[in-house]
Fold this sequence. Notes:
The chain has helices at 44-63, 66-82, 84-95, 99-119, 158-170, 184-195, 211-220, 233-243, 268-280, 301-313, 333-348, 384-387, 403-411, 454-459, and strands spanning 10-12, 15-17, 24-29, 34-40, 126-128, 135-143, 146-150, 173-177, 203-205, 224-230, 249-253, 258-262, 291-297, 352-355, 374-377, 394-400, 415-416, 419-423, 425-429, 444-445, 448-449, 462-470. It is of the alpha/beta class and 471 residues long. α9 links the parallel β12 and β13.
Amino acid sequence: MSVVGERSRMYIGGAWVGAATGNTMVVTNPATREPLAELPDAGREDVWRAVDEAASAFPKWAATPAIERGRILYRIYSLMTDRRDDLARAITQENGKPFDEAKREVAFATGYFSWFAEEARRVYGDIVPSPVPGKRLWVIKQPIGVVGAITPWNFPATMVTRKIAPALSAGCTVVLKPASATPLTALILARICEDSGLPPGVFNVVTSKSASVVGQVFLEHESVRKIAFTGSTEVGKRLMAGASQQLKRVSFELGGNAPFIVFEDADLAAAADGAVAIKFLRVAGQSCICANRVYVQQSIADRFIPMFVERVKALRVAPGFDAGAQIGPLINGEILEKVDSLVQSAVRQGAQVAAGGTRVTEGALSKGLFYAPTVLTSVREEMDVAREEIFGPVAPVMTFKDEAEVIARSNATRFGLAAYFYTNGMVGVNDPSGYTHEIPFGGFKESGMGREGGHQGIEEYMEVKSISIGM
């Protein structure tokens, strides 16, 4: 399947439409910086209309039996599975990640539809014993209403399905604003939903280069009762403040600053492999839950660090469709400049470059936004590279003496999204191998609120109603 034919349209009310103003935006390939598609640049009128369509579709969808909603969601899962390569190809084109990695993302993203297809019929209420005679007390759960969803560019399929699958399963209708850098995957998903028999207006996709315009409509339109957002902590705070004006429900997955800790009794080869996988092999380090700070116990630093550096130097930087590609381009020039700025700032403050540390511009890579996988040693906590979310292929390495010290240092951050450590065996808190559909995922502190996945994921889109019946 191809998105040709939809590349000049967005999906509102079951129809493929342009922007009311006729304005458009260009989607580019970060590996070549060449244009991929021209899409509508939705304005306020378009977003308002999309919410109106979702509001009109809500009563009928909410009243659809859960088992039937589940059947439709399972058809979406089946079509996503059938069209996996089309979705993965779009991800690699617009995001840049290696094609094999993109296929793994799609396989994971489809799982949210199969999981929540089953969960739709398991939203149970309660019959509560009355404290007085002549009454019956019921507690039921109902869909919250229209959901405004805003998703990022780093996982163009997973971040969408993780939000819309539980919302649709609960009986909510959705208006999705995908990242302006990666909207093509979302449009393929819209076509799949349409082909699966999802009623018009239940799922809508607005493409826009102005997240603030879309977000403002979500905040102002009274039919939007829930905002689901993945992105920066700063934007999340602004959305939360705006949502308070109508007491809209919010759930956010925000920034992270995950520590990766290697203790002296760890299997060092396994730890080095794990550090490379968690830091570099998920969209080139552009992930909220990737390792952002590597802590190594002093007694084994002289053995572990060379092993880690050797593995990082062996990583292959290449366009996503090249055979054996492991590290693709960064998503845009702004991210590239930020990553390089953090590295250069750390070097000026005394950090040492053990691997990488520069842009990659040889041959065909000169056209793209590639940065060499980088390891920095002699890093200190006060450096920006250790305090900020890097969002790129850079691993700052620090050493520690004992467990108490590293726990204190790891927790001395405003974020709380993920953590990893290797000791006698391996335990990862919220690690990629343990992050799955069946359990909830979300942040502490300034890394967010609410949970996605697990049976808790559908609860985020439900209201609890108490009913007292006089007998």
